[in-house]
Design goal:
By secondary structure, the chain is mainly alpha-helical. Helices cover 81% and strands 0% of the residues. It is elongated.
């Protein structure tokens, strides 16, 4: 094998090596980010103020963990991404508190 062939073979080997490692790394980092976002949503009481979004985030997170356990890293990363989106939506909705009464905080009036 000449030098050019060896360089191409090495490049392909490195490419395949890096591609097989991306799934677990991406999935694990997204799961970690999703857990952080869910914790942020919990901190602003999203379970009470945005129950749909919060529950969806938790369930997407549960499914992402389950799929990660079965080494389905691509699907796990997808569910973790959905969990991140729903946790952010829950936190945002909770911070605006759609259930808050317009009369709340106006004692004596």
């Amino acid at each position: 094998m000449n030098l050019k062939g060896r360089v191409i073979a090495l490049f392909l080997f490195i490419l395949v090596f890096l591609m097989t490692g991306c799934g677990p790394i991406l999935s694990t980092s997204r799961i970690s980010e999703a857990k952080d976002e869910i914790a942020k949503a919990e901190a602003v009481n999203a379970a009470q103020n945005a129950p749909y979004e919060y529950t969806m985030a938790v369930e997407y997170m549960r499914k992402a963990d389950e799929l990660w356990g079965y080494s389905e890293f691509g699907y796990s990363a997808d569910y973790a991404k959905k969990a991140i989106e729903m946790a952010k939506a829950a936190a945002e909705k909770s911070e605006t508190n759609p259930w808050k009464s317009p009369l709340e905080g106006k004692e004596g009036k």
